[in-house]
Design goal:
Blueprint (H helix, E strand, L loop, with lengths): L1 E3 L5 E4 L5 H7 L7 E3 L5 H4 L6 H7 L3 E5 L1 H10 L1 H4 L12 E5 L4 E3 L2 E10 L2 E8 L2 E4 L18 E5 L12 H11 L3 E5 L7 H7 L4 E3 L5 E4 L6 E3 L7 E4 L1
Parallel strand pairs: 2-3, 3-4, 4-5, 9-10, 10-11, 11-12
Antiparallel strand pairs: 1-2, 1-15, 6-7, 7-8, 8-9, 13-14, 13-15
């Protein structure tokens, strides 16, 4: 997921294996920071491709996550952090920062949202009135207060049948109702869900996202529209 704030700050949430193709397709010209939800392969294996942004921007990119995720990144990309690896333009430069609570960057406050992905603790993120909660099957009690007053919510909804590590549609709808965002987009769907058929059955204000979806969210009004001119919060690319 790519988030562009109104001041131009470019935020990447996770780095999927097809990051290069997606960055070219949607013309992501810079990445100022990376927020990691967890270290499963489909969320981090694109990290090597951020090196072009290091080259263009002339420095390391801050990369935030919990302790386990950052330890996994150091292990999976050991060559990046090994002083014996020849330096040069072929290595990504990542400045890893462990998250222990909300933090500020470029005048914005980013709030990590503790979640459960099966038995594994993972993170979602909130900035302003927007929250992104992917790959989760449970929202712990401590996290519900962090999700009050949302205008736009992106939430995991894998399929109709129950799953051990992801919300199914029923669970996602129940969680979305409790959170009460003005608009909820469900993500991380499997091929079991027909898009049009599923959307027709969802409550008002809830819809399945799709590849390439671009939202514009305005913090002043709480409105979120597809493919409109950038507003206060900026563009959200899913």
């Amino acid at each position: 997921m790519h988030l562009r704030l109104d001041d131009g700050l470019s935020v990447l949430v996770d780095a999927s294996p097809d990051l290069r193709a997606q960055a070219l397709r949607f013309r992501i010209e810079r990445v100022d920071m990376i927020l990691l939800t967890h270290s499963h392969a489909d969320h981090v294996l694109g990290l090597d491709d951020v090196r072009i942004y290091n080259f263009r921007q002339g420095g390391a990119i801050p990369c935030y996550g919990d302790a386990r995720t950052l330890a996994d990144v150091r292990r999976m990309f050991a060559y990046v952090f090994d002083p014996a690896t020849p330096r040069g333009g072929g290595l990504p430069q990542l400045a890893l920062w462990e998250l222990v609570g909300p933090f500020s960057a470029a005048g914005r406050t980013f709030v990590p949202i503790p979640l459960r992905h099966g038995r594994r603790p993972v993170l979602g993120y909130r900035v302003g009135t927007f929250a992104y909660l992917t790959d989760c099957s449970e929202i712990p009690a401590v996290s519900w207060p962090l999700l009050r007053g949302l205008d736009v919510l992106v939430l995991d909804a894998l399929r109709r049948r129950p799953h051990s590590t992801h919300f199914n549609v029923e669970g996602a709808v129940e969680a979305a109702r409790r959170i009460g965002a003005r608009q909820t987009w469900f993500t991380h769907m499997s091929h079991d869900l027909g898009h049009a058929d599923t959307c027709e059955r969802l409550p008002a204000g809830m819809c399945l996202a799709h590849d390439g979806l671009v939202l514009d969210a305005d913090e002043r009004t709480g409105e979120a529209t597809c493919r409109a001119a950038a507003a206060s919060l900026g563009s959200i690319g899913l």
